Amino acid sequence: MARVEFHNVVKRFGDVEAIRDMNLTIEDGEFVALLGPSGCGKSTSLFMLAGIYLPSSGELLFDDRVVNEVEAKDRNIGIVFQSYALYPHMTVRDNVLFPLRFKRIPREEALGRVRAAADLVQVEELLDRRPSELSGGQQQRVALARALVKEPQLLLLDEPLSNLDATLRLTMRTEIKSLQKKLRVTTILVTHDQVEATTMADRIICMRGGRIEQIGTPDDLYHRPDSLFIAGFIGSPPINLIRGQARDGAVHVGPVAFPFEGLPGAVTVGLRPEHLKFAVSGLKGRIGQMEPMGREILYVVETDVGYVRVLEHGSLAVHAAGEPVNIGFSPDESLVFETASERLIAAARVCPPA
């Protein structure tokens, strides 16, 4: 397996700086996700690790060895692309066998590796078929087998689940996570889907504009986001971000105030929908619409400070559109950001369940 490091890595395409002075260490056997919106630099980072792109400056290291000039075929990396990139004229067996063409391995040993990889991802009965005869989920498994057959020191996953339906994505998330733990291969997942990142990765590297915005566990990013960007990007339904003022030892959000020890000025208060309750007093509003979500109901409430989302447990709505309500919340479940800098200045004192 491999310990991976970025040392002051920059990647430019002409005048465009896609990666800006990236410093990052991924430990041996770790599963991390590079998460962010389109254009943030996550795929560029992965392609540099794969040897598809060369860094414009800085160093990439595998186990303390600089690999900037090492060709892709010599990096012992397995990669699964979004499109799977299977050869349509080849059988599954030949597709999985293909990466071993660069290695001087006796054919019987190579075929043994193919069978072992196919068995790992449960496609051993499909070895004589061609990609056109496979479902999307089966093609995904074949692409994984092809990446694993080399026994790579590093596994790279580039949006691997985006072409699958919702139910199959759920299944594959579980299977890939289980497989990674079994093999203990250092794994880097690139995704724009926060659910994939938070359910699969040990740590998340959240990127924005070619830079790392925050690194942490899924709980870190959810409960202690460093910035408004992270707060808004992580969480579904999305967090409520409400403008307020800090003055006289309190934060004022409309008619509601709670104690605050920071400097006075404009602030933005972050309130997760599941932390809000309908109460006898609080932020006044009117139910605008209801969104049934199975076990929960999401209410969108029109208030003087904008639309506020409230998530309630239960499959049946107990409030009707147009109904006047009051929204209550606890200061201990609130995030306070300085509006000007967009940085967190007071974290919610909410502990995730043990």
Structure notes:
With 354 residues, this protein is of the alpha+beta class. It folds into two domains: 4-228, P-loop containing nucleotide triphosphate hydrolases (Rossmann fold, 3-Layer(aba) Sandwich), CATH 3.40.50; 237-346, OB fold (Dihydrolipoamide Acetyltransferase, E2P). It is 22% helix and 36% strand. It has eight helices and 21 strands. It has helices at residues 42-50, 92-97, 107-120, 136-148, 166-183, 194-200, 218-223, 228-233; strands at residues 4-13, 16-26, 31-35, 57-62, 65-66, 77-80, 154-158, 186-191, 203-208, 211-216, 240-247, 250-253, 256-259, 265-271, 277-279, 283-292, 296-303, 306-313, 324-328, 334-338, 344-346. The chain has a six-stranded mixed β-sheet with strand order 6-7-8-3-9-10, with helices on both faces. Strands 13-12-11-14-20-21 form a six-stranded antiparallel β-sheet. A five-stranded antiparallel β-sheet has the order 15-19-16-17-18, with no helix packed on it. Helix 3 (107-120) crosses helix 4. 36% of the residues are buried.
In short, what is this structure?
22% of the residues lie in helices and 36% in strands.
Ordered list of secondary-structure elements with their pairings:
Elements: E1 4-13, E2 16-26, E3 31-35, H1 42-50, E4 57-62, E5 65-66, E6 77-80, H2 92-97, H3 107-120, H4 136-148, E7 154-158, H5 166-183, E8 186-191, H6 194-200, E9 203-208, E10 211-216, H7 218-223, H8 228-233, E11 240-247, E12 250-253, E13 256-259, E14 265-271, E15 277-279, E16 283-292, E17 296-303, E18 306-313, E19 324-328, E20 334-338, E21 344-346
Parallel strand pairs: 3-8, 3-9, 6-7, 7-8
Antiparallel strand pairs: 1-2, 1-4, 4-5, 9-10, 11-12, 11-14, 12-13, 14-20, 15-19, 16-17, 16-19, 17-18, 20-21
